[in-house]
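Extended Data, panel c. Modelled sequence:
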Amino acid sequence: MGRKSVKGKLKRAERQMEREIIAAAQKVVNAANEQEDPLAKLVAFKQYKKNDLAVTLECRRVEDLNDETRNWAFELLKRNMKDYYDTCSWGWNDRVKKEEMTDSRAWYLIARSSTGDPVAFSHFRFDIDFMVEVLYCYEIQLEPKVQRHGLGKLMMQVLELIAFSANMKKVVLTALKHNPEALAFFRALKYNIDETSPEGDFEEYPYEILSKPNKILLKNIST
């Protein structure tokens, strides 16, 4: 009875600790989601010009996007990614993807041209992932005409600034294993395999979970 009693106490203590960790993480996530504009403190990053490309960045909740912008984002994602989905176990499903993209927790970082037309977007969320507060990048998609101008790199850097200024512990994303260009892009930006990434063959797990930690938080913890 004595040993069982000790084990029971340890399990209860572990569960209590987990609840406290999740509660603390949820408090940080809630604060991040209560922001009116995550770009408000990053004014210098709202404009991007390089050679013949000039865009303006904005950050909005999905509910604040008009139907035209939401439809454009879905169609761009479908054009860019449907073939990748269809050639792995995920498959492409319009309804499922639209539900994901319009979830009430969704935020969008959008790049618009000088004429106001959207040319790139990232769908992201402030969330808890394995008891850790994170900014999860669901998508980053660019129109072909604005690719290879450094815009994708800038948008990922802005996501990192948004995440770390909101005290998220890391930026997390999912990358398909059979999309070598995307993998090379993220690895060039110092994203590495996350500890939560599943191990297995392509048929079972056609994706990897990549992440970049908040080095400022890590530094403060270590000191």
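The longest helix spans residues 2-33. This feature is highlighted in the accompanying rendering.
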